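Task 17 of the worksheet. Students: predict the tertiary structure of the chain below and write it out as structure tokens. Keep your answer in the requested format; marks are given for formatting as well as content.
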Amino acid sequence: MKYTDAGLNLEIYAETMAGILPLLARTWDRARVVTAPFPPRKGGKGSGGFASLFDFNPDGRYKNPVLVNCTDGVGSKLKIAQLMGKYDTVGIDLVAMSVNDLICTGGEPLVFLDYLGMHADDTALTLEVMKGISAGCVEAGCSLTGGETAILPDFYAAGDFDLAGFCTGVVERDAIIDGRSIQAGDVVLGLPALQLLESKGYALHIVGRGKWAPALLAGYPWDVHVQPNGLRQKIAQLRQLRRACSEYEYGFDQRENAFLLPVSISSALEMRMAGLNAVGVAKEGRSPLLARAEPWATQGHELTRYWDIACRFVRHVGPPPDEIGLRVPPGKEQEAAQHLAAHGVHGRFLMIAPFAGGRAATADKAEKKWPGFEDFVREAPVRLGLPVVVCPGPGEHEAARQLYPAAVRIDDCDLGVYVALLQRAALVVANDTGPGHMAAALARPLISMMGGADAPRWAPWGPNVHVLQHPRQNDQVVWPDAEEALSLAERLLAETT
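Model answer:
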């Protein structure tokens, strides 16, 4: 019995492996990859070890780490790749499917593994697929440390292949995202784009990820739908919305009728499979799935990028608004007043948002939590003469009690009430998170602690935003101390008395 009898050609396999190794090596974090995967065997052919070693915490940055694991495939996008004869982008989407799930927990992607099953050895196809996987790992900042290539001639038909990906990451236990703050902040930055569409006469039916979306957008006359899990369910929801719109408007199916803020290929595929004519950015090789693909602005603030694609959709020319104008959901102002009264807060107060899930979208995944928050909250009530209010989200209550005993803790408010509380605050002090974006969108005075984040791209958008951020020293984040924040808070409160 020979390898060739089972469909495996060792010479072709060696050629393929020689091409794969550089694609893996370009993704490695050299300070963390302990042993390179696939060391050469004696004689230089084939590959050796079947496991790689990775040090996820070499600098001790994680004090209470939790591992995050994800796996996913690309589904029917493989068939699209085959029909187009283009295989160097489907690997990018493979990485994105797992990494996107991972980062939603606040985790940092660390390592990625792939599975490629096919009918017979095909060096050209394998290397094209691996180019995409390698590019996706570089973009995601995770190390491609190995994988499996299965040659199964009795299982896969000639020309067919399958892909699966596996990603492992890490998150600090108290930085695990509950899904409320960061996603809400992202939606806030997209509001001017949505309001532009509305101003041009469009009746908006919004499909958003997360159960928080209807609550956050309850102040607008839009139909907001929570996107379900699973590709089949997502497509069914979009088809139902398409049928409803077609019944309402004659000719709906003959025009561009969907607008995509997400930039993933999966979002474009869902629209296409639902029969919608979507307009979105040309990214991740998804242009053939769109009715119209527009260029994605490579620079600028994230709000202006969303605004730019909305302008292209409606063929509008003009700058984005200076103020977002987030609306407080109906009835929530009264509920917020009741919460404050029940906790003995009358008149002006300072609100803090000291929690932050995940790390900054920087190469070094910089910490997003301002380390001076405890000292600030300890001194603020006396120094500023105002009560300090904190509204912890799910899983944050015990940390709020232990870290900020001087603050008034409101534990039982929903997202709509949270927005109303931000609206009432004389001043908000926040990390680089969703609450900061919401406060800025309400035009409230805000001190935003950006740490190592890319402020020109991600700073909260509004006329009363004050970013506290120092230049890095020796590539290390330099945070402001509590005294600097207290001095700025004194000045801002005096200006708004």
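Marker's comment: The two ends are 87 Å apart (CA to CA). Residues 42-47 have pLDDT under 50 and may be disordered.
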